[in-house]
Write a structure and sequence with these properties.
disordered C terminus; 10 helices; mainly alpha
Length: about 220
């Protein structure tokens, strides 16, 4: 990570933290009142091979005694009504501003993987994680919807794991390598802007035109 990108991350995390503080507090209160404790979900992720950190998110699922691997259709029943809204607008990721401020993550980069996948594919992730993990990134924008589509029909943890490793890991890694080769502050700003735009509501007229254009 360049000093310029790190400085941008720090200033942006502080600025957004101040501006979004009322929203962050409101979401925390809603999660606590509707779904109980804990409000924050903590997950071990990898910043680089051999360098774990604790990722923070607002909790969107019911608590399970054992939980491993990525979320597929086998975990869909555990997503709370509040969690569905938070996931749709990515509000569950607001606590990751703290991860950015700490230096665990950047605003833009590959999504931080679980240790199990880094251990399974050390050479692949050694290359992917040359760029610091991010809240959003090229693979997130391009492939997230496809990943959800592939994992949604999975009914067991084993099936989810198989589909994720066979179909998602290599495709996401290819996109992450493209980002790593071309990354610069301008690209980061564009990816952040594109992430926000994708989450904004679409006017009814525009939504209808989009549907008609894909028929």
């Amino acid at each position: 990570m360049t000093p310029a990108k790190r400085l941008f991350d720090i200033l942006a995390a502080i600025g957004l933290g101040v501006v979004l503080a009322p929203l962050i507090l409101s979401v925390a209160v809603v999660v606590r009142l509707r779904d109980g404790a804990p409000v924050i979900y903590r997950s071990e992720r990898m910043r680089a091979p051999g360098r774990p950190f604790t990722l923070w998110k607002f909790r969107t699922m019911t608590v399970a005694a054992t939980d491993s691997g990525v979320s597929g259709g086998d975990k869909a029943a555990r997503i709370t009504p509040t969690g569905q809204v938070l996931r749709r607008w990515r509000l569950d990721e607001l606590p990751q501003l703290w991860n950015v401020l700490r230096g665990d993550m950047s605003f833009v980069g590959p999504r931080p993987p679980l240790r199990r996948y880094v251990d399974a594919f050390p050479e692949l992730y050694a290359e992917v994680l040359r760029a610091r993990p991010g809240i959003t990134g090229l693979a997130t924008l391009v492939y997230h919807a496809e990943e959800e589509r592939l994992l949604a029909p999975c009914r067991t943890a084993a099936q989810t794991e198989q589909v994720y490793i066979r179909r998602c890991v290599p495709r996401k890694a290819r996109l992450d390598r493209i980002y790593s080769a071309r990354r610069n502050l301008g690209l980061d700003l564009w990816l952040m802007f594109a992430t926000v735009i994708r989450r904004l509501p679409v006017a009814p007229g525009r939504r209808s035109r989009r549907r008609n254009a894909h028929r």
